[in-house]
Write a structure and sequence with these properties.
Peroxisomal Thiolase, Chain A, domain 1, 13 helices, 34% helix
């Protein structure tokens, strides 16, 4: 892929368990957009593309509602619905649109703040049941999984972890190390929700089981917040005050929705996605300075490391055991703390992996700044190990 698009500006709100005020998503997008443009040194009139997730105030015609509210005239407009992989999908779509000449500067917007409540909302009816898979009575989830208690994410990921245990053996201390090292990274990130709250391997092992073998301290912390980035042409990126983070490779792959439809519990779609991304970028795994991997659960990280080709299948535990995953270590992973310790403010949690990679490439990561960060491997994961996206970012 020609190096034709780069991330130059960003905005990220400090995650909070309870947002201090209720905001409409459109208002949050406007605030995030203004901060992102100021960070990049761009004017609003230069924006000609919008990519976002679903907009609560506008279930249909979402891009036009965003454009109208922000006062933009745009020629590339996209809604990405890939769960936690959505931010990664937004970024590569924006880069591809710039590459083919559809637009020049695209805002990627991911607000995650509480919405004004609807007093007539019935939690027993759609769309509230959609998250649990009850959106289609003919689906496997609605017919077989939900009645049996297989509801939402934790039990599904636990099934993958149990399968890993059965095939390769599972050392729970290794999975705990992922949580501990990411929590250590969070101590160098004042915006992390667990900043100032260290944990040990013993703490993780002693935390209660949520779905065997997954424990409480191996699961993301849902919270509120918001984030945005600006993707622009490489030519425009030259005048940004910050080092451009070029989008040089990407891949996307999807095989199923429900965990019961996954062809192989130990072969997530990240494999083909990562292979395409590295091939497109002309890069090797050995060249990666930062791994920014989606971490809904510790097992998600283990499967991603193996699936993306950083080590053979079944050897991920040895790979983790032999490496220091902290920002000062030999294989820096999720230096902002990952969603396990930074927090998961909706789609902004997935975007946090890209925000951190851009910060590291631009030399703006503060106390956790890597000595060298020229190439970052970023990943987005959606659903039940379903949608998988890999993106390579490189410093210009």
């Amino acid at each position: 892929m020609p190096r034709s698009a780069a991330i130059v500006g960003l905005a990220e709100w400090k995650p909070q368990r309870v947002w201090p005020e209720r905001m409409f998503a459109l208002d949050a997008m406007a605030a995030l957009a203004a901060e992102t443009l100021a960070d990049a040194g761009f004017e609003k009139g230069e924006i000609d593309g919008i990519v976002t997730g679903q907009v609560p105030e506008s279930p249909i015609f979402a891009p036009s509602a965003v454009a109208e509210h922000l006062g933009l005239a745009t020629c590339f407009n996209e809604v990405v619905d890939l769960g936690g992989a959505s931010p990664a999908g937004m970024i590569w779509r924006a880069a591809a649109a710039i590459e083919v000449g559809v637009c020049e500067s695209v805002l990627v917007l991911c607000p995650a703040v509480p919405q004004p409540s609807d007093p007539d909302r019935d939690p027993r009816k759609l769309p509230n049941m959609i998250y649990y898979g009850g959106d289609a009575w003919g689906s496997a989830q609605a017919q077989f999984e939900i009645p049996a208690g297989l509801v939402a994410a934790a039990p599904s990921y636990a099934m993958a972890a149990q399968r890993y245990r059965a095939q390769y053996g599972l050392n729970e201390e290794i999975l705990a190390k992922i949580s501990v090292h990411q929590r250590e990274n969070a101590q160098a990130n004042p915006n992390a929700i667990f900043h100032g709250k260290r944990i040990t391997v013993e703490d993780v092992l002693a935390s209660r089981y949520v779905a065997d073998p997954i424990k409480l301290l191996e699961i993301v912390m849902p919270c509120t917040g918001g984030a945005a980035v600006l993707v622009t042409s490489a030519e425009r990126a030259k005048r940004s005050p910050h080092r451009p983070a070029l989008v040089t490779g990407f891949g996307e792959y999807l095989t199923h929705k429900s965990i019961s439809g996954m062809p192989d519990l130990l072969s997530s779609p990240i494999g083909p996605a990562a292979e395409r991304a590295f091939r497109m970028a002309g890069a090797t795994r050995e060249a990666v300075d930062l791994a920014s991997i989606y971490d809904s659960f510790t097992i998600t990280v283990l499967l991603a490391i193996e699936g993306a080709g950083f080590c053979p299948k079944g050897q991920g535990q040895d790979f983790i055991r032999e490496r220091d995953l902290r920002h000062g270590g030999d294989w820096p992973l999720n230096t902002h703390g990952g969603q396990l310790s930074f927090g998961q403010p909706g789609l902004a949690g997935g975007l946090s992996h890209f925000v951190e990679a851009v910060r590291q490439i631009q030399g703006r990561a503060g106390d956790r700044q890597l000595a060298r960060c020229d190439l970052a491997f970023c990943n987005g994961s959606g659903g039940m190990l379903s949608e998988q996206i890999a993106v390579i970012l490189e410093g210009a």
